[in-house]
Amino acid sequence: MSNWLDAVLVLLMLTSLWLLGSSRLQACIRAVALQGALLGLIPLLSKWPDISLRLGAVAVVSMVIKAVVLPALLRRAVREVNVRNEVEPLVGFTTSLLLGIALWGIATHIAGRLPVDVPGLSPLLVPVAIFTVLCGFLLIVSRNTAVMQVIGYLGLENGIYVFGWAFAIEEPLLVEMGVLLDVFVAVFVMGITIHHLSREFDSIETDELASLKD
Amino acid sequence: MGLFGVGLMVLIGGGFLSLGLSKTPKTAAAVACFTAVGGSLLVLVGGLAVLCSGSPVEVRFAWHVPFGSCSFGLDPLSCVFVLPIAAVVAVAAVYGREYLEHSCRPSMIGVSWFFFNLLAATMLLVVAARNGLLFLVCWEAMSLASFFLVMSDYEREEVRRAGWIYLAATHLGTSLLLVLFLLLGRKSGSLDFDQFSSEPALAGTLFVLALVGFGTKAGFIPVHVWLPEAHPAAPSHVSAVMSGVMIKTGIYGLLRTLTFLGQPPAWWGWTLVGIGAASGILGILFALSQRDLKRLLAYSSVENIGIIALGLGTGLLGITHRVPAMAALGLLGALVHVLNHALFKGLLFLGAGAVQHGAATRELDRLGGLLKRMPVTGATFLVGACAVCGLPPLNGFLSELLIYLGVLAGVAEQRAAVSWAMLCVLVIGTLALVGGFAAVCFTKAFGAVFLGEPRSDASRHAHEVGPAMRYSLVTLAAACVLVALSAPLWPLVFRSAALTIVPATFRAETAAAAGRATVPLAAAAAAFLAFLAASGVLAAVRKRLLAGRRIDRGPTWDCGYAAPTARMQYTASSYTGPLVVLFRMFVRPRVDLRPPEGLFPIRGRYASQVPDLFREYFFGPVFAGIAWVASRLRWLQQGRIQLYVLYIALTVLVLLVWKLG
Prior knowledge:
Number of strands of chain A: 0
Shape of chain B: globular
Structural class of chain A: mainly alpha
Mean pLDDT of chain B: 89
Oligomer: heterodimer
Strand content of chain B: under 5%
Radius of gyration of chain B: 26 Å
Strand content of chain A: under 5%
Low-confidence stretches of chain B: none
Strand order of the largest sheet of chain B: 1-2
Number of helices of chain B: 26
């Protein structure tokens, strides 16, 4: 199944680039939902064909949460604040894509030197994980609307999740619970931030928060 | 261990239940109070069973955290601390139910009880934890629960300040403990207590880390600064728990660490004696210059922790120089004082809460004459005050007697070396000096609050507190007397706990010496009984003589004037004035004096306050310096989320590249 796994990993990488290049919030939410669905496939594919009930349950639950629940929450947030596009990103979309390619280089460089010693691991897994994390960081840093920052945060956590599969085979449940809890808290907090931002400043640009600095 | 576990479950469950019930404050308080009392009693029985049988128990659960293991155990040393924790928590819970009803907003009662039960449970978990990581988690939970309790009255500026000081102090202490445990577990690669060991070269460093880290919680001078801030700020039943037992977890931690470190060199004992002397003398000097009753009690806790440190130091010196009587009596004195201080300081803080509740102030110079208005509070406070001064028919005397005997045994043993004897005499002198100052301090406190005429309207209209609060005061006062009367029992009960600190090669002699300690204590208990009997007889004689005669009741203090005012009385500050002036070097009162001028003076003014020496001249400047450096770095803080995340991302990248590049 390693071919299928590699295909999924390449798709993951492409969705990250899609996130970097798109200005429409709806498209970005769709991309992050797709990423969530792909993530759910990784444990199934890497363990195929001996899938335990627990593994299956974990994969299904994470898919439902990452591909259905969280994107639905985001869509509702976007509908409520009535914002469609990321208008003025701090770093432009083309530049973001170019930076993304540079990040891919950094990711493969780091992954090559990381002492990963897990037998039967796809050589793409660690670079893609690091790349997804770095793209998440880049999104948070370069975008202005709070929704895009939440999406960046989700991307970052997705990367950590992939990374978790490379290392934490013995203690998978711990990592999963931790990651899901993180994501939940993040979306929760950012949801509140978005809500209050749009109410206070009539916009969801986090730049407005700088006026709160004392 | 079974009862102990069930008791803990009851405590924690009750806490969460009262949090859930916070919409109905009365029910929440009832549930929490009931579970706190029930849980503590279960724990108490479990602890006593282990203490009497002397055989430690341990349980271990799986815990999927690196280096962590969920192992709990009870050995005699833990049980010595379980005993006062459970007792004080149970009494404070009964008291707190009535106290909070009058002094806390109804919406906050559920939350307050949640943290109270959590504090009780985490204190017990701290003394039962048998893994470094688990210990730190419980320790941190305990600190946070007590922090939120200190912040109960968060709308007041000074309470918030006290809370932040406490939080900073406790975290600085914990950071040292983290290093301590990592170093202890380095050799075996495990943080389980039974795997801990220290390399001889590191033992000194480890001792200092434990001394400062645990000493911050215990309140050794100079890291005591949070005590006089946090204890007055918390609700009174919480102050009783914090001052009576929570600070003792610091002593527990220090003792537990000593069991890992092996044979103590002489300088450990002398360091502890020095810290004990400094904490004792300075603590009581600061206490007697305070005007706020609870602040005074907080400083007195510093003094009592100093006495415990003196006992420990004496015990360690006994171990180092192989004087069995000195080792046994010093350690026993320290451990018994842990129990005694929990009882009488709990009593005094609850009494201070009753005064505040009845007379609406804690300012000594606005109180007075409360003995007539609050007889039960007054009488029980008097018992507590006598106990804290170490006066004979009460429990405070026992522990100090043990320490005195321990030092004297040291003097007798090493007759040859003059310098050694001199140092021992110095310890005795310190203890005596501290006892004398304590007597001044508490005659001041009791005299200003309960005797004379009321100094304000509020204290003129003071009223006795309700039955639950009265019963808890009487219970603790009775416990103080009972502990004193059962004096010969305590060396036997606490002996196995003291022996855990003694190296195995020296254990048999020390155990024998501890057994011999019952003889002087039995004599003391007999004298107590005789004293009480004589007092009873005298009281009966007095009653008989007065029977059928007219008894007049007049004003307490009219000083020969026709129309005296309460302001003509001795004030608390004037009572201790001479001593404060004598020790100006340490106490440094800040006086604002505008004397009356001219032949017909209209107004004059005198105000004095005593800031904490160490906060004013050491911690204040240090933290101001840190704040100055931090303010130089303000340009880093631009208020943009993007920039903050960029800092994180860059740090991660630099670390990755640096480590792997």
